[in-house]
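dumping the sequnces here before i forget
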Amino acid sequence: MSKQHTPQLAGLVLIAFFAIFPFVYSANDYPYIMHLLITGFFYAILASSWSMLAGYAGQFSFGHMGFTGIGAYTTALFIHYIYISPEATNLCTEYAIGDQFLIFVNPIGITSSTLTQDCLRQALEIWDGSVQVTAMPVWLGIALGTIMGGIFGLLIGLLVLPLRAAYLALFTLGFSEILRATISAELAITRGQAGIELPHLFENGLTLFGRTFDKTDKLPPYFVMFFLLLTCLGILAWLSKSKFGLFVRALREDQDAAAALGVNTTRYKVLVFVITSMMAAAAGAMMAHYIGIITPNNLMILQMSLVVAMAVIGGVENFVAAAIGAIIIEFTLELLRNSFEVGPFVVDMTIWRLVIFGILLMVTLRFSRNGIISPMIDYFFRGHVAKETVAKRATGTSP
Amino acid sequence: MEFSHIFWTVLAWMIFWAVVGSFVTRRVYLHRDLDTSSAAFVGSMLGAATGPFGLAPLWMNTPEITRRLMVLPALGAVMVIAAAFAFADPSNNCVSNGSFVASQIVNGLILGIIYGFMALGLTLIFSILGVVSFAHGEFYMIGGMVTYFVTTVWFPGINPIVGILAACLVTFVLGALFERMFLTPMYEGKIERPVEYGILVTFGLAFTLQYFIQATVGANPVKAKRFVDFPRIRLPSVEDPWLIKTSRGNMELFDTVSISNPRFMAAVACVLVLLSLLYFLHRTWTGKALRAVSLDREAAAIAGINPDRMNMLAFALGGMIAALAGAMLVQAFSWLPQVGAIPAMRSFVIVVLGGLGSLPGAFLGGIIVGLVESAGTGCVPDAQKAASYIPAYGMMVLTLTLLLRPTGLFGRRFSGGAHGKL
Amino acid sequence: MTNLVVKDLNKRFGGLHVLKGVSFEVDGPELIGLIGPNGAGKTTLTNILDGAIKPNSGTVYLNGHRTDQLQPYEVARAGLGRTFQVTRSFRRMTVLENMFVPALALDRGHNRAEINQKALEVLEFLTIDHLRNEYAQALSGGQQKLLELGRLLMLDPEIVILDEPFAGVHPRLMEVIYRYIERVNGAGKAIILISHQMDSIFTLCRRLLVLNYGDLIADGVPDDVKRDPAVIEAYLGAEEGEPDAGQEGRVQP
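..and the predicted 3d for all of it:
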């Protein structure tokens, strides 16, 4: 067993641990811990995809949270406004597809004191239970959200092509802020700060292996999010091992030199935006369905700073490290929640933990630029390199 | 309120020709082998203002792009939008009410001066360290907090100038310490990508400061007492022969333009500090050294200036300027730990619009953003919507600037190093 | 057979006329020296050939395909490789990864094991194979230069432009670079060598191009060029017209 295999083995153990954990753990705080883990997986997806974007490709984008929002709002709006009905309502905008009708509900915003404004509910009242209206499936919403994330990623990727460093950061920040402002302002459609409610991932419950799960049970969303994380990590791993990973790193190091060696830098720069945006959008859509509500505050700069800090503390140039960092930090932040008293002073840890977190971020950047987890992985993968180099030099083919 | 289709049609027409103008003009200038740095900007503005009628002669003659050629189409485009707006919504306050417009413009100018002043700090930091400080809003917030505590909590009744000076001192020291502790490795070439490092580490600082204040002060809004009661200016009349009257309310000019007193005073103070800053930068040795470092680091070092010292000074000074803006405005707004976020964003917009690193650009950019925001807030028919869109107005300006003219109004190229390429 | 036809290239930067109707042709595995005083337009010419900047007028044909309007990566795939005046290795990638980038960029149904084998062979040839797993930033300046040359070999271009390969290089590494040039040239590739080191140029090259303020003032065998009054006037005059005095400086391979 060579040292190089230790990280792979540790990774397998970790995956196995997370796969078994929900079945073994049975303390009182089970739903709470499960919730933490699901949130942790969500941040892990964001942190690892951001590390691909920022760490591998060198595109320090602050718009990653915006893409989460695009995914979440796409699925929310889709499910909120579109229904399928066997009968025409003759009130809503509707299109006949075969013998079914695709119904577009009119946006009424938060002034919903009046049933009468909602064309579908009016129609339902008229039908009085004689017609069954079907909501759009959740998975289709999530898929659409992911695709929409990709489309916006393509757009942003194309727009930022000539921008570098500080300009890129500011542009993406601007994108994210415009998005947030638009969502807050367009009350009629997005319901603004009130947020849109979404159905749960398994709204009608789920029966698996003879066990029935309620829609609020944590186990199904846990595994859904876990598999999404594994899928994302798998894709990232495959990408980083393939020529894609090699090329984006080359363009991070020196765009002109990479182009002079035949790398289509434009294509890879746009592609890395598209792929990571899709991951963020998928995670956002999934998370929105799990939480059950999405508000524009989910896109705040604070959320973005969390993702950035998680990736940086884990190690921005290694997506696995970023993912592990995200899960660990999510847990540490939660564990630090307990306030305590020192003499007459109450130390409100819900805030102080964030101060500690900020300091940790700065200190990590200052003294360990590759983060905290990533050097450990590197130690196993690259620890032998120096020795090898010396050994090879000693055998003496070189000057 | 329903918005007329005319407006959207005009807007769509303008956007279409602006896009066409920006792409084709660049191509044409490139092909004719002329300077293309402003071609996209001129093309889009001319396209927006005049459509194909202005673009065709531009493409045929390809005149040299002068400042006039840049300013006039831009103004034209603004006029066209305004005209379309007036036509589409004749009953709007912005169209029918002259004094409202005057008051919006004056307020926009005053806000713009304050915005520009704050952005000045950011651009000062950038021009010397090459860092876009993401903690600028937090310095602003701390400036206000310190002033609040000194003037209202700890020593009520004390001269507000003491509070302002205390805010300056605290933030100056904070800035200097942070620069020494976290930014020094940037200059030694130890960091592969210094620009990103600078962004991330100031981001960390912002995070830390914000929550530190929230943990110590709490999340409830605080408000400082007004520093002084303000004169009330109005034209003398028969029944009231006094030109100036002291009141606590808004300042009224000629019975039409209403200005919030604290804002007016903040703007005056900003102009005064700006003048002294300009004096400092152009007349004192240290100021000249600072400018020298921003122009050419190596050459300045050879001339006997210690660039490291200047870095520290610039970062501390930049933070202090933001704090000063905060200290002046704490009497006007309620103060929260998160209060810095929007001004910080606005400062980003302004420095990019004015050209990263350009001091006059920051000031002019501030005024433009101030006017755009007051137009946006005042004229958009749905007031609630308008308020929600406030952060977006500036960001749209930013996006447009980066797409059309990334160097901004007065942009200049930096001699490389930590500033990074555009 | 390598064939590069450059016809009437013009490039202006604002008011500066950097290239004034430069035309020449490279036919077969030639070893050409491109010389000229600073500001003569050598780097601009390289950048145009490489696709990094577009000429105002004129054409470049590489093996019958027009390349002057292509992107750099397309030019690279079409068979023109270049090094940069300032070494530009991918600093935070390992030496082997550096070598893999051009090989994989070629889209030629690659086989990783084959590429690996070739990369190791090239690294060995360049005497830096013991560093294969080190990050490029750990290499010395000269070793990075060799790495850049090795990368170019992985691209396997038909024509190679070497921009100042000898600048600031230790004599022992210089010897490696000489061997490299012989190897590439021997494999039937054309080389355009840009250098200020006259001794190297005169030893290696069998044809010289002389640029002076955007004009191609001479194109011919070194002995003729040396005697060309325009060249002496513009360039060699400063060195008293005795370029072959540098001959002793050559390191024997």
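Chain B has 16 helices and four strands.
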